[in-house]
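Repro:
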Amino acid sequence: MPVSTDTVLEKLLIVRCQTGDGAAYAELIARHQTALFRYLQQSIRDQETVNDLYQDIWFDVFQSLAKLKDTQAFPAWLFRIAHDRVCRFYRKRGMVYQSTSLEEVTDHLGEVVDHDWDYQEVHRAFDQLMPVHREVLVLRYLNEFEYAEIATILGCPVGTVRSRLFHAKKAIRDIFEGEKNHERERAKPSVA
């Protein structure tokens, strides 16, 4: 399979960063800035905290980039660092990280359920999912990571990612089927 020009450029950029090229660092940040900010803003609603974590993540990246052997794995590696930072943020506050990003995930769940999407319905369904299921849906359908990349980000086997996606989709279907059945029951005339 031919390698895209963008992939080659990214690899070269990372190698330049590993040699201490400051301009390459700036370009690397620019390439991933939007996606990383979006991920953090979906995870943490406080903009000041998002900005602090963003800086901390890039500091971690620059400290460890020389150790990265597979330059093609950089996006997943970056998001793994971001995921760990977000989890650490919540853990320090005695909270559990719960990923949400309904506005954009809604558009990508059409393949899961044959249903006319209503934001409030999706919001209710999404809130009923386990946090690990919400997060895997966001990473797959919003950030468009491959299974192997999600596994790297979450620190789990690819089989676990597939299983979580399967169960998340099934849970969404079950929630909507339950709502449809409930609506049918309410619509039936009562027998007196």
